[in-house]
Specification:
The complex is a heterotetramer, with 2 copies of chain A (325 residues) and 2 copies of chain B (326 residues). Chain A has 325 residues and is α/β, with parallel strands linked by helices. Chain A contains 10 helices and 14 strands. Chain B is of the alpha/beta class. In chain B, the strands form 2 sheets. In chain B, strands 1-2-3-7-6 form a 5-stranded parallel sheet, sandwiched between helices. In chain B, strands 4-5 form a two-stranded antiparallel ribbon. The chains are: A alpha/beta (325), B alpha/beta (326). The structure holds thiamine diphosphate (2 copies) and magnesium ion (2 copies). One thiamine diphosphate (TPP) sits at the interface of chains B and C.
Chain lengths: 325, 326, 325, 326
């Protein structure tokens, strides 16, 4: 199969769906001229006249106008530039987009997508490095997709572009350049279906995004020590695939949840809660989590490395939950 | 006046319908029949009425927490509004929204809004959609004097000016944001002065003069329909009722309110029409009676409607009511 | 002991500390003329000339200016009016206040307080009813206090007014009118110390704010059925008192966490995660939680009652965790 | 010019120090020695320099992502700045912040800011503090043309006008917000036109003319110190470097940039001073040499400094480094 990058996969999804559906348009800061700051829109450069729009730095309108445009029949795809700046227009999301359909008694179909980069890169520091997907899982009203591979990116995003409900897509900065197989044929990946990226029998690792790759690396290393790790990529957090997770834990009896965001009240806690409730008698050890320490992302490389989790933290956590054998 | 009698009586009748609805809502609230809290449009009827007389059904509006008047003037169903105030299944939002969240997408009402200035970004988005669809519809975004100090106001006006979107920003300056007088919190003498900051036309008018509102909005709507972009209109009025029903209003003297009652828009327009021989006592009575019985019927409808089933609280979040993770 | 209301307790804390410390001032929407929309500042009316300030409806500056004023040596107390409107100026909190000290390497003492009402009232509907304390527990950088009684309100708030770190205080709307004993003598309640509001031996209920009272009611009802419930009021979420919670669970072997906010990814999941990790072998049943369904707060009374938890839900959850005996 | 030679050479020297620091930073970044990303102030030195010549140590500034020039002009320690760019323990933020988060509270620098317009609400708060403390200090809030379209701009200007706070809003219009030209996203011809919306003085000046900046800011600072409230100043300049070091700058022609190089503020001021006999070749060389060796020393300091210990990442969140819940 041909290999393309994560960012090319996003570009293909946009290109194919925009070609099909004239109501899709996309806008945000710095997307039209250089194809976006991470190049995600390079494939749209010069195409779709008037439907790829550079905007003022006005995040509350970037998000809030997506609601208005959707209500008026369009399918807006608004870019949030950096996940940190979701906060800059947060009220348009949390008080408007996420509540509108519910509080109007289901009057509207909110086919709108918010998308952009999250997570660390090389020393982008505290205001350009956040992973805040948990917040959008906590507040009701938006579907949350968190792809980890070019294949998933394309398939999930094409589904997002057909969704009748609001979707937010978090694309990890360190993944844009990642290459992977993507078929020529058209495909869509449904929300709420986890992908078992690696089968195993001793411990289940539930994860998403960049941490999928760290977990796979950990699993490969641990295999050499005779430890068999199952890596479950949730792919979407709202909805998330309880069934696959619970079945995996019923098989392995041990769970680690790994994400880049802060450990405290990160979505790992929610997965852990549901699993202990639904599979209490199957658990042979306490559930462990991997995540960032509860501080902001520091600038200096040794500090960032210390705060942010990688495969070594996954290995440690896996060994921890096995320590209880 | 160069308008025909029917048109003028129509404006009058709309204002009367709003007033009647609001007076009834106030009464019902004070009787403890309505849950939540409500913000009355009494004394501001000329703005919604004059403005909406320029709109088609396909045009959009975004409204505020003080939205009943906007809905009625845009053509909303008073029965469904009243049922929503009661929290009934037959209400606009099936009881989920209440006064502050009424919407009617079928007539372009993109929602009341419990968040001050929350409707302005939505209006900008509807404007973008219209432009991309190459339609000549327009959007009127209503907002208060207090709302003009929120960042969303600035972002939306700049945005709509830059993209020349068909959005009319209609400021209802009723002199108060809850307990705060406009002069205490707003740095300009006229909110329309802010138009300069967006390079768009800005005008202040007497918001209690329904004809002035009609004509000013007319010009703005025509400009918007023909691609001329946004306009900022400040309609100066006065909130003669409390901020919400039950407001102790310790922040002003009764005498000040009494003075403004004399200027309220319905009586004023009525005196004009009567003096010009365009409204007979009989016609007047018919209009008020019709409004009253329409509102009474709405109350009956609301009261006889059932409450929503408790479990219906778990629908309407997403299109696929899959009940994710409940 | 004399009894005063929750809102009077807040007023007393403000009055005493403002009298002592001339750098404290407070501002927000509608606080100066009627003593705040829930009357919390009635005791300040006409006092402290120039230090109780009505502001424009400009939430990003209401919050962001607190940071600037603190950096310039004052102790601002900014009111957020309704918790829902924290989102309206969210970036000033999440990107500025919560990050400033960390990303500047500890240069500043951020003695500032954000406070205001949260939670339901009678049909305030989706945009005036939120409980979003979990978000401030997830993102690092602010201490979170959630008092449930007049006594706790006063003591915790006086501590907040002496804190050298940012504090956010959530006051439940339904509690402002609640009366309770408050001593004449001055006292401060340290952060991070839970209060066991009722001792018991069969099940631990960890809770805060309005749900403390619902849990106490449930406990009283359950006692009649011979079930002994321990009610632990955390009082502060950042930091939270792990020791008290874990010791209680080690005694009762069963845990319910009860809050008003959404169940999904609510802070209950974090408590549950830590408890299962630290007291795995003590747990005789899966941990249960009580919280709102994952929708917004609907307007109509029967809908609101259905969505929002009360004592009956606590009773059910307690019986649930006992079902496993 | 009515200024004495020492003062004028001081302005020149400050601009040279900024330029030298920035050129070095660019070089180091391209060599891969600096982590993260940096935004250069090259070509905009006259603004920080002219503005800060009016300030005392106790006055405050809020800065931006393009903040090195502001820091240096306000009196920051170049060594600690450079060490921070390297991510070293001896840097201003002990390596936690990097270029975009440098602050120095001891000289009133309330932080660079990675969030566009993020400093404006902070400036308003510092202004409130000054007023409550009955001091006569002032705050200068720097922000870009792009930042002027964020809601925070509007809220802060209205707020400072309403409360008459001693805050000078100093807009650095360098014609670009990343890849976007100011005309594409900003509805006014001059950003200072927006002052009308807040009923405060607004003025646009040539931001490459250090004396014009000095004098305009001087008047605003005097007004602010004496209780006259805020001023909005737009200093027009041009960003002759990329948005950040490494920017492909596909959005403009090289010829356009070349034209603007001819107008860059240091050469321009230098030519003036030389022509007026106020700067000899020797003095000029001394100033550049001093700057160069100061910056070289800073680089040495930074390179020889240790990285922070990894575990130190867990300090500085709260005053009591209790390590809550780690
Ligand atoms: C963002 C936000 N902040 C605060 C509030 C609380 N609030 C509701 S109405 C109101 C005053 C609004 O004043 P104005 O915009 O003049 O409208 P009016 O009530 O006068 O019609 C306030 C402060 C809110 N709903 N939303
Ligand atoms: C709130 C926010 N939105 C977007 C960004 C990304 N961003 C960083 S700098 C920049 C352009 C800023 O332009 P301007 O204010 O003119 O400052 P300049 O870079 O020209 O000095 C953008 C969009 C950001 N940092 N913050
Ligand atoms: Mg008003
Ligand atoms: Mg710029």
């Amino acid at each position: 199969m041909r290999e393309i990058t994560f960012s090319e996969a996003l570009g293909e999804a946009m290109y194919e769906e925009m070609s099909r559906d004239p109501t899709i348009f996309t806008y945000g800061e710095d997307i039209a001229k250089q194809g976006g700051i991470f190049g995600a829109y390079k494939s749209l450069l010069g195409k779709f006249q008037g439907r790829v729009i550079d905007t003022p730095i006005s995040e509350e309108v970037i998000f809030g106008s997506a609601l208005g445009a959707a209500l008026a029949g369009m399918r807006p795809v608004a870019e949030f530039h950096f996940a940190d700046f979701l906060f800059t227009g947060m009220t348009a999301i949390a008080n408007q987009i996420m509540k509108f359909r519910y509080m109007t008694g289901g009057q509207a179909k909110l086919h709108l997508v918010l998308r952009g980069p999250d997570g660390i890169s090389k020393s982008a520091a505290a205001q350009h490095s956040e992973s805040i997907e948990t917040i959008f899982m906590h507040i009701p009203g938006i579907k949350v997709i968190v792809p980890s591979t070019p294949y998933d990116m394309k398939g999930l995003f094409k589904t997002a572009l057909k969704s009748e409900d609001p979707v937010i897509c978090f694309e990890h900065k360190m993944l844009y350049g990642l290459k992977g197989p993507v078929p020529d044929e058209e495909y869509y990946i449904p929300f709420g279906k986890a992908d078992v990226k690696r089968e195993g029998k001793d411990v289940t690792v539930v994860t998403t995004s960049r941490m999928v790759h760290e977990s796979l690396k950990a699993a490969a290393n641990l295999e050499k020590e005779g430890i068999s790790v199952e890596v479950v990529d949730l792919r979407t957090l709202v909805p998330w695939d309880r069934e696959t997770v619970i079945n995996s834990v019923k098989k392995t009896h041990r769970l680690v949840v790994a994400h880049e965001t802060w450990k405290r009240s990160g979505w790992s806690s929610e997965i852990a809660f549901i699993v202990q409730r639904e599979a209490f008698d199957y658990l042979d050890a306490p559930i462990e989590k991997v995540g960032a320490y509860n501080v902001h992302i520091p600038f200096s490389p040794p500090l960032q490395d210390f705060v942010v989790p990688d495969y070594k933290d996954v290995e440690k956590a896996v060994k921890n939950v096995l320590g209880g054998i | 006046m160069e308008y025909d009698k029917e048109f003028l009586q129509g404006l009058y009748a709309t204002m009367v319908r709003i007033r009647t609805f609001e007076s009834k809502a106030e009464e019902l609230f004070l009787q403890g029949k309505l849950p939540g809290f409500i913000h009355l449009y009494i004394g501001e009827e000329a703005i919604a009425t004059g403005a909406m007389a320029n709109l088609r059904k396909s045009d959009y509006i975004t409204s505020t927490h003080r939205g009943h008047g906007h809905m009625i003037a845009k053509g909303a169903d008073i029965k469904k509004m009243m049922a929503e105030l009661y929290g009934k299944e037959t209400g606009y939002c099936r009881g989920k929204g209440g006064s502050m969240h009424i919407a009617d997408l079928s007539i372009g009402v993109l929602g009341a809004n419990g968040e001050v200035a929350g409707g302005l970004p939505i209006a900008a988005g509807a404007g973008m959609a219209i432009k991309l669809q190459k339609k000549d519809d327009v959007v009127i975004a209503f907002f208060g004097d207090g709302a003009s100090n929120r960042g969303a106001f600035h972002e939306a006006l700049n945005w709509c000016s830059v993209f020349k979107l068909p959005v009319i920003f209609l400021n209802e300056n009723n002199q108060f944001a809850s307990t705060e007088r406009v002069q205490e919190t707003t740095s300009v003498a006229n909110i329309s002065d802010r138009a300069v900051g967006y390079n768009i036309p800005g005008v202040s008018i007497d918001g209690n003069d329904v004809i002035a509102v009609y004509e000013t909005v007319k010009a703005a709507v025509e400009r918007a329909r023909s691609g001329g972009g946004p306009t900022l209109i400040e309609a100066k009025t006065y909130r003669i009722k409390g901020h919400f029903v039950g407001d102790p209003t310790l922040y002003r003297e009764k005498s000040e309110v009494d003075e403004h009652w004399a200027q309220e828009p319905i009586g004023r327009f009525e005196r004009e029409l009567v003096s010009m021989g365009l409204l007979s006592e009989e016609e007047k009575k018919k209009i008020w009676d019709a409004a009253k019985s329409e509102v009474e019927e709405a109350v009956k409808f609301a009261e006889s409607s059932p409450y929503p089933a408790p479990e219906s609280a778990l629908t309407d979040l997403f299109v696929d009511d899959a009940g994710y993770d409940y």
